[in-house]
UniProtKB/TrEMBL annotation:
GO terms under biological process: glutamine biosynthetic process
Region (Disordered): 294-319
Domain of life: Eukaryota
Species for this entry: Nezara viridula
Annotated catalysed reactions: L-glutamate + NH4(+) + ATP = L-glutamine + ADP + phosphate + H(+)
EC supergroup of this enzyme: ligase
Entry's localization field: Cytoplasm
Taxonomic lineage from the root: Eukaryota, Metazoa, Ecdysozoa, Arthropoda, Hexapoda
Name recorded for this polypeptide: Glutamine synthetase
Record domain GS beta-grasp: where: 30-112
């Protein structure tokens, strides 16, 4: 099966030892490649392009504003298509090494107003208003590997793998598919300077998870988006695709989410459980508003996943409980015992925009909006 997949992937077939000859060429010391990364008009897709800098940047403020053709990314009309890239966060480039950088950007229209899929702009405003409450986030990014035909990677061409059960956190050639990608991605994120905190194989075969966090404020969105970019880029070299679709296989197969773990300074202090319960109470009154913010299509993507089965709650109801993986919001058992810590919002879809998710949480819980 694997051979079939690689045959179909032009990228995987390329001879990487030739690439390595050129990547090994000495790079002029005063020339840095900066790859600018941004979210396109779908609110899910990522785009990137590179420019050479004549200096080694040490802070994000030194990076120039740039632009691109927004009409090719579903972000503008052809007649007024120049769209601006504002650098917001900088990471070490795990593909080009050296002083080269990956640069997360947000996007602005010709009139300097944020584009329709720039959800960072308003998220940052909320994070700044709530900064004294020190909001922390940890996101569990689930995803599925697909072959070039769009089948889950490693699944039999005709038919299905055995039912779910042996795959979650599994080991062995008949239990997990694509670990090379997972391991490469983990190291690449660590190298880049992303606060990746773990990874595991998921319940459906060829589905995986990595976690980013805890991160304070706006940085969770920046880091998760760049971790997604690195994942697509690593998988590309293996000739494998990554989907963040929340229900890639209909039927008796788990969907994919992006559980958002959230705390404020008060929740982390002794007896913070009172503040956790208070937050859950506020969230219960804003269920619909949160569902709309938790996938890029106002809840329509999550409808296929939040069925009340396969370790999810129903999209129609809000529920909460200690150690309950069938609830909208779970208080982890350890936090209930310690009477402090954080809560886990299990509703966000795997393809959510973390800027929208964390903004909704902060506006509801910290800003009482
Ligand atoms: P699960 O048991 O739901 O699979 P994981 O171990 O996958 O949980 O993920 C837990 C996440 O919670 C991690 O991303 C971690 O960074 C995050 N986290 C831990 N403590 C806090 C906290 N105080 N506030 C916010 N997030 C936290
Ligand atoms: Mn051109
Ligand atoms: Mn997890
Ligand atoms: Mn999981
Ligand atoms: Mn979880």
């Amino acid at each position: 099966m694997r051979m079939v997949v690689l045959e179909n992937s032009p990228n995987a077939k390329m001879n990487k030892s030739v690439l390595n000859r050129f990547l090994a060429l000495p790079q002029p010391e005063d020339k840095v490649q900066a790859m600018y990364v941004w979210i396109d008009g779908t609110g899910e897709g990522l785009r990137a392009k590179t420019r050479t800098l004549d200096f080694i940047p040490t802070s994000i403020t030194e990076l120039p504003i740039w632009n691109y053709d927004g009409s090719s990314t579903m972000q503008s009309e052809g007649v007024n298509s120049d769209t601006y890239l504002y650098p917001v966060a900088m990471y070490r480039d795990p593909f080009r090494l050296g002083n080269n950088k990956l640069v997360m950007c947000d996007t602005y229209k010709y009139n300097k107003k944020p584009t329709a899929t720039n959800h960072r702009h308003s998220c940052l405003e909320a994070m700044q208003k709530a900064a004294d409450q020190k909001p922390w986030f940890g996101i569990e990014q689930e995803y599925t590997l697909l072959d070039m035909e769009g089948r889950p990677f490693g699944w039999p061409r005709n038919g299905y793998p055995g039912p779910q059960g042996p795959y979650y956190c599994g080991v062995g050639a008949n239990k997990v598919y694509g670990r090379d990608i997972v391991e490469s991605h983990y190291r690449a994120c660590l190298y880049a300077g992303i606060n990746i905190s773990g990874s595991n194989a998921e319940v459906m075969p060829s589905q995986w998870e990595f976690q980013v966090g805890p991160c304070e404020g706006i940085s969770i969105g920046d880091e998760l988006w760049m971790a997604r970019f690195i994942l697509h880029r690593v998988a590309e070299e293996f000739g494998v695709c990554v989907t963040l679709d929340p229900k890639p296989m209909p039927g008796d197969w788990n969907g994919a989410g992006a559980h958002c773990n959230f705390s404020t300074k008060e929740m982390r202090e002794d007896n913070g459980i009172i503040h956790i319960e208070n937050a859950i109470d506020k969230m219960s009154k804003q269920h619909l508003r949160h569902i709309k913010a938790y996938d890029p299509n106002q809840g329509r993507d999550n409808e296929r996943r939040l069925t009340g089965r396969h370790e999810t709650s129903s999209i129609h109801d809000f529920s909460a409980g200690v150690a309950n993986r069938g609830a909208s919001v779970r208080i982890p058992r350890q936090c209930a015992e310690d009477k402090k810590g954080y809560l886990e919002d299990r509703r966000p879809s795997s393809n959510c925009d973390p800027y929208s998710v964390t903004e909704a949480l902060v506006r509801t819980v910290c800003l009482n909006e």
